[in-house]
Fold this protein.
Amino acid sequence: IKNRNMLVTGISGGGKSVFVNKIVHHLINDHPTVILDKGGSFKKLTHYHSGSVLESKFNPFHFKDPMYLREIILSVVDAEKFGKLEKGKLLKAIKEALPKSQTFFDLIENLKENFVDIDLYFEDFKEYVSDEKVHFQKILYVDVEQFPKAVIAPIIIYILEYFKTLPSKEKILVFDECWSFLSEHSQYIDECFRTFRKTGAFPIAISQSLRDFENVNQSLAQSITNNSYFKVFFPQEMSAVYDITSFDIQNISSLSFKKGVFSECYLKSTDNRFRKTIRNYLTPLELELFHTESGKDKKLNQFLARFESYFNSKDQAYEAYVRLRYENHKDDFYFTSL
């Protein structure tokens, strides 16, 4: 299958994050992975696999593609002041300024020749920018909710460029419900997902419904849906949009769910080669890693805080906790005393 782009939709709590966690968990050791999270659904998975976390600063100038740098700049300035003509001027100015710029803020300073006071847009942006060299990580995780709203769109664009330039062709991108920050960047997103589709990457876009994209931007909706070969539907209200038929709607409406036991989803491919209902079960380890219920990680976090340093790796610590909790130790003194 050449096009591996996947779109996963469903209401909150329906199982979509758990499903994506499960896919990534079983592929992550063999494929470089980038996770754009919104709210921490993939944080435990990243910790279990000893992934790297982008927590504060990033270096947007590590990548020198002029189109990408223009997109970073447009995500910070007043977009309504940059029509088609101004965007063309900005791209030309970036190309001319690149040879004499050593850092991102050198570039911004050089752009002032053509765009007076453009540097003032970036005053609040400075504390999040680094000039340090970027090292590609086997697993890179970003929770966009840990950053101010004004910085989220530039970080997402930076992460997409980072993912595009990862040396491996077979790589994974998780893009979790960050679409509202990209309403002005549908053309760039479209180009990214077309590139992913052609190169064998495996991007997984997550949203609560197909309508979510339309509410942000109609072009963005068409880009994501048209470039996704696989569409995975969890329980949600559906109508016959795009390539969704009455047969598909009937299957989606019949999906069932049993908390803590299984969830069901409906898988459909663009060419209808795949049209089937999938029932997802979780092992005890997967249940601990993937669930997103608030407050349910208290004992796990206490265990890791006290004992993780005694293990050779993070995954060993998680697995020890699961053995203690699920293998006939539910009433042990340790768990009743935590």
